[in-house]
Amino acid sequence: MAEDRREQLKQFVEREFIGPDPVNWEGLLQENGEEILVTDPPRTRYIAGILFPHGAKEENNSDDEKDISVSNEDAADDEVNQGVDYSAGDQFEVLEDAEELIDRSNAFYQSAMSITVAINDGDSISACVTAGVYSKTTETNAESGKVTTKYYRRPLEWKNDERFILPDKNSPLKKYPVGDTGLQVDITLRYRKKDFGIYTVTLENTKLMEGEQIHDEDCFFQAKMRITSENGFHFLPEGQRINSDEDYMSNLLLYRDVKNYAIGHGCAAEWDELSDSVSWIETSVFPSYEVKPIVPSVISGVTLSMKDMSCDDKFDDVISQLNLLCKKYAEWIESLEKTSVPDNLKDTAQRHIGNCWKCQRRMENGVRLLKSDVNVRKAFQWMNEAMISQQLHYGLPLQNWIDDGDGGIKIENAVSVLPDINNESTWYKKDERVYGQWRPFQLAFILMNLDSMNNRKSKERKIVDLIWFPTGGGKTEAYLGLSAYTIFIRRLQNKDNAGTAILMRYTLRLLTAQQYERAAAVICACELIRQNNEEVLGEEEINIGLWVGGDTTPNHVKDAVSKYNDIKSNRTDSNPFVMLKCPWCGAQMGIVDSADGKIRHTPGYKILPGPRKSKRFIFKCANEDNRCAFALRPSGLPLYIIDDDIYEKKPTLVLGTVDKFAMLPYRPEAQGLFGYDNGEKITSPDLIIQDELHLISGPLGSMVGHYETMINDLCTETMPSGDISPKIVASTATISRAKEQCHALYGCGIDNVFQFPPAGLNAGDSFFANEDKNKNGRKYIGILAAGSPSDATTAIRLYAALLYAAKTMEVDKESDRDPYWTNVGYYNSIRELGQAKTWIKADIDQYLDVMYKRRYDDKRLSQEEYKKYRRYIYRDEELTSRIPGDKVTASLANLNIGYPEERDTEDRVKEHSIDICLATNMISVGLDVQRLGLMTVAGQPKTTSEYIQATSRVGRNATFAPGLVFVLYRPSRPRDKSFYEQFKQYHSKLYCFVEPTSVTPFSAPVRERALHAIMIGMMRLEHGEEFNADPPRFPKQEIIDHVRNVIEKRIEDIDPCELEDTMKWFDYRMEEWEDWNPQKWTPQKNFDMSMGNPVPLIYSSSDKPNAIWDGRGIPTPTSMRSVDASCEADCIKSRYTERDE
After folding, report:
1. Which Pfam families match (predicted)?
2. Cα dist. 814→5, 568, 865 in Å?
């Protein structure tokens, strides 16, 4: 079973780090089964779970190692420990001896470990202490005279015969020796509450260090203490905030039944969860916690078939099912109203229930609309047809092209027939996969928004709907469905309204490229439906554009043609064209070389003649033999990735990064994406989708919010009855204070943000999703190796142990190793990742050899056995911002290569599964590789949101590959240690600790950097070619007034305190424009100096201004990634004078 394999990895690492790890060799095992260490002394062999003698000091850290481990953090953050509530109780003066115990627990070479617990009055506790001690002996070989040092392990187990007498206010510290072992249990009374006390229980090594060296015999290994209560421990009370916001109160309600029973000091704490009361608590140096999955609900009696919903003859049955869904939801809400909650949480409970009713009423309204409006019904049916078609076609395997031996290529593994939604026998792996079923929350979300997209004047159109659902739950499917509905309802209302209907924005290029492939399948389905219904959906193609930076795709046709020719002529293997697979039939697209490497084919890519002797690039599937619909179409696939094409075609769905929108002041030709034609407003997008909203925060969020002023104005149609703006939908799996963030970004108003699904009364149940305690969740394991000589040593050993465990664990078949074969190493910075990259081919590989030789003797193994037990690192990968954009798609494809049952030799390295993939936050969203089950996190990430998102990249297929996450905490970092010591509390309610985000769109750094950008952007994109021609004429007063009014209103809504200073800056920028009399909007490339002084109005912030401009021209962002001003050094002539003494 998958859980067994995961447990094997956990136990292997625990034995490797903590011990004991006996090897069944002659001379290495005592008669009682205990180990004998020969090659390494205990303190070298094991690096965690050790209690050192008093006086042991940090040693053996080189300067390089210290550079890795030392942090500039002065103290632990309080983000995990919300504080134990000591109010309404007595605090006792802590004796100096008792305080020293905590210090010993926190020392680098700690001599104690402690846990703080709450014990009810009248109760008593007992303790059980276990450890291992090693005695050193030397043995001389009679024949060779060789002297061997050996360490014999002796297990130690102690239980107190009588229950401890707890300390009281007269004697707040009690000490209990653990026999004559040198260990001691200390109990300190720290605080008294009304009916319980808070105590710190410490296990300490009382031995004193003799001399300068630490002796292994004076250390206790595998140290553990379990304390037991007769009546059950009391939970530790949490401190209450003086000022409690809505989110804080919601978390108190949702997690009111999740209690914290202990805090560790120098260790973590584990406690009994199986019984009604917590009867035992123990120290843990290897804590683990399984976060059970929140899964979409299956609602009894409700069937949500996409196929049925696409058919006219099933319409009445569909309405019945949708009504039943609404009814079941109403019944669930009614049950909440009968649930009793504490008095201090009743108002919060009523707020939650009220939000649920709002959702239910919107769903019912959507069902009524389906029954009453013919266009809504038809758009809904076509949406369902498109979505099931997308699932069937996107799910097809990659079909590779191979050399046909005759100068051409053929499909190597072609599927026999492409899927037909009306013929289930054609569905690929129908018996193994679920096709065409909506999850209730997905369809409920779409029902809620049917009116918003049908009626442009609907009040609900002004509501920002935020899909909040754990990663992997199906958020993307929900908003892709809404996108398809939007496309069809827009065309049904006006078949000639063929401009851009949807703007879909992401923050990371990795996610953008990956989601483009998925969205492309939906658009292909929509386009085929349009082709078959031209009389009502029009003749204009339904298409999709990928609008990203030039590092990812060519931005100009001439660049695309040039790069295509380089590929075709075998001058490069770098492929910037993103699409590597036909979204409709699965046929490979891209580079295919002949067997001898002399002929290069590029199936799926074509260069065609364009207007005026130009050329153009298109995607055209080459799979004609299998009758792919888009191979038979002269115009090819409705996909565009080149900026020039996107500005010309104005794709129905434009998918891009938020950074691309910073280019708008430079690209007036992009006005078509917002419904303008040469300055005249023709139409507007109807839907804006912002994925991974939690990433739009901090400096990036402030810049995005600033530019949103311009984007909202460009998308708004002014009508006599009022302005009409697009519907905004956002999604996230981790968010806090979403209302404030959305308002700061979109100016929608605090009360116009709706989180879906709305929360119920418990974190594990929102009707549409529930915690499944019977399924495998993601298991987190914490490691803090206080006995390690350096952080680098700890990391190297962990990587090696996990690689080795995956190679040697017991499995039914070799492919069972696959989920844990690739270890994804997650780092908080590229600097740290760069250091780790140097370990792979040297240190980690060397330690793999150490582990192998520790367990096996080459002389006793056959060649086959050697292959079975020896692990090598064949292939590593990096996923960071350092990867060129054209390599991102290929890197993703590499991660999908599973571990084969037989490994080839190193000369076929391209076919090997990746052993180690090192990554930064580039993968924290959107990476969806089902085979990945293992991750190592180096240090606690900066935010809980990032931690959740990053670790959710593994274990996405919980049945076959339940996730296993090792978190490597660094003893020298107080923040890391704080998370480690409260490991169980933190992971038991992860989402409760998601930090609120900060967005300040009109703060001084932002407006100084970008206010002029949105001013100029609005002016250029809302006017025609005459206005945008060089030289840039100073705008008419009516244009200035319009832009000024837009910005003023936005600031008044979002942050009135910044209004005066911002408008002063507005006037200052306009004065600069008027005074400078610029000759160009943007810098002219390769200008002739004799032609004059072409001063631009704006130039890229990343470029150094030309000296000839004489300080004129405004540096303007081309990305939203930085708000901080940069400084440049320059040489100037200066006169130095003597300073007065």
Report:
1. Helicase_C
2. 12, 39, 14
CB atoms inside a 10 Å sphere around CB 767: 23
**Which helix (H) or strand (E) covers residue 1044, if one does?**
helix 1037-1054
Structure tokens at 781: 């394991």
| pLDDT at residue 385 tops 80 | yes
With CA atoms as reference, report the closest residue to 370 among 325, 328, 322: 322
pLDDT number for residue 1121: 80
H or E stretch at 202: strand 196-205
Nearest-angstrom CA–CA distance, 134 and 217:
6
Pair 208, 234: CB distance under 8 Å: no
Report the C-alpha gap between 6 and 10 in whole angstroms. Answer: 6
Helix (H), strand (E), coil (C) string for 496-545? CCCCCCEEEEECCHHHHHHHHHHHHHHHHHHHHHHHCCHHHHCCCCCCEE
Amino acid letter, residue 913: S
Q: DSSP E strands: which ranges in 745-843? A: 753-756, 769-771, 778-783, 823-826
Alpha-carbon torsion, ordered 834, 836, 839, 845, to 10 deg: -130
Report whether pLDDT(709) > 60. yes
Query: Look-up: residue for tokens 């201090």?
Result: 344
Look-up of token digits 């943007």? 1082
Nearest Cα residue to 758 out of 468, 1126, 432, 961 = 468
Structure tokens at 285: 């140096």
874: closest CA among 908, 843, 901, 902? 908
* Alpha helices, DSSP H, located in 29-80: 42-45, 63-69
Q: Three-state DSSP class for 999?
A: coil
Q: What is the pLDDT of residues 673-697, one digit of tens each?
A: 999 999 899 999 999 999 888 888 8
| Residues whose CB falls within 8 Å of the CB of residue 559, separated by 6 or more in sequence, listed in order | 550, 642
The sign one gets for the Cα dihedral 1030, 1035, 1036, 1042 is: positive
Query: Which residue spans within 104-146 are E strands per DSSP?
Result: 112-120, 125-140
| Residue type present at position 106 | N
DSSP H helical ranges for 720-784:
738-746
The helix or strand, by DSSP H or E, that contains position 1028, with its residue range, turns out to be helix 1025-1028
On average, the pLDDT of the chain sits at: 88
Could you tell me the domains of the chain?
A: 2-214+223-291 (no CATH), 306-395+433-553+641-769 (3.40.50.300), 789-970 (3.40.50.300), 1004-1116 (no CATH)
Q: Dmax of the chain from CA atoms?
A: 106
Q: Which is nearest to 268 in space by CA: 1109, 1017, 978?
A: 978
At 270-322, the pLDDT tens digits run 998 877 789 999 999 999 999 999 888 989 999 999 999 999 999 999 999 99
Q: What are the tens digits of pLDDT across the range 423-463?
A: 999 999 888 888 999 999 999 999 999 999 999 999 999 99
Buried b (16+ CB within 10 A) or exposed e, 328-366: bbbebbeebeeeebeeebeebbebbbebbbebbebbbbb
